[in-house]
Amino acid sequence: MKFTLGEIRKRAYHEPYKFDGQADVSELETMNNDIREIGSVHVHGTANDQGDEIIFNFTINGKMILPCARTLVDVPYPFEIEAVEVFSTSPYAGDEDDEDEIHPINGEVLDLTPYIKENIILEVPFRVFSDDENATSQAPFEGNGWEFVTEEKNEKKIDPRLKKLESLLDDKKEK
Question: Which InterPro entries does the protein's record reference (predicted)?
Answer without folding.
Answer: YceD (IPR003772)
